Amino acid sequence: MSAVRSKICGITRIEDALAAVEAGADAIGFVFYAKSPRAVTFQQARAIIKALPPFVTTVGLFVNASRCELGEILDAVPLDLLQFHGDEPAEDCEGWNRPYIKALRVKAGDDIRAACDAFPGASGILLDAYVEGVPGGTGEAFDWSLIPQGLSKPLILAGGLNPDNVAAAIARVRPYAVDVSGGVEASKGIKDHAKIQAFIKAIRDVTAG
After folding, report:
1. Which residues are within 8 A (CB) of 54 and not within 5 positions of it... i.e. 6 or more apart?
2. Residues 84 and 64 sit within 8 Å (Cβ to Cβ)
3. For site-directed labelling of 186, which of 14, 155, 194, 197 has its Cα 20 to 30 A away?
4. Residue stretches of the chain with pLDDT short of 50
């Protein structure tokens, strides 16, 4: 099986970011959404990014941010990739001189293929669980059988993943990457370093098999 990339999202502390990198994570995610318990200021994110070694992708997560707010953050924080996790149309995701991924919240009856095709400029599509009124980070999984084969973009799987189920998720879905936040936490916004290590190890074990 091909290598599966990993992103540890909801990072709020330098020590957690470095633990994720040490474990082998490919990307670190920062939540710029004030209502999230994992939200960071641009000062926090900038300090964490400054502490990172090279070749780690830094991702900023936004939920229906205004162009003014987004512009201010991008001027202050050297993010590599943008993740749009709200109801943003394609035109609001583009024009920032950075690649982006679009998150879609999955529920029964959705036309995932059509939703994916609505973002032709995206570098990838992230599929997360649909929970009414909550844009992400719910810790809930969704029915992976709803995911159609042969999507037009690389698939990033999120939603309720943890060290115990990520191998099964990869074997079933065969995504390009997996994204975890709550599944490797000690408390909201605080990562459990042993869980991060177990999560990355589970990915490597299943893809090596």
Report:
1. none
2. no
3. 155
4. none
Give residue 180's domain range: 5-208
CATH number at residue 188: 3.20.20.70
Q: pLDDT tens across 49-76, in order?
A: 999 999 999 999 999 999 999 999 999 9
Residues 6 or more apart in contact with residue 31 via CB below 8 angstroms: 9, 10, 38, 39, 40, 61, 137
Q: How many domains does the chain have?
A: 1
DSSP-assigned states of every residue in 73-121: HHHHS--SEEEE-SS--HHHHSSSSS-EEEEEEE-TT--HHHHHHT-TT
Residue type, 3: A
The answer for 175, left when phi > 0, alpha when psi is -120 to 50, beta otherwise, is beta
Residue type, position 78, single letter: P
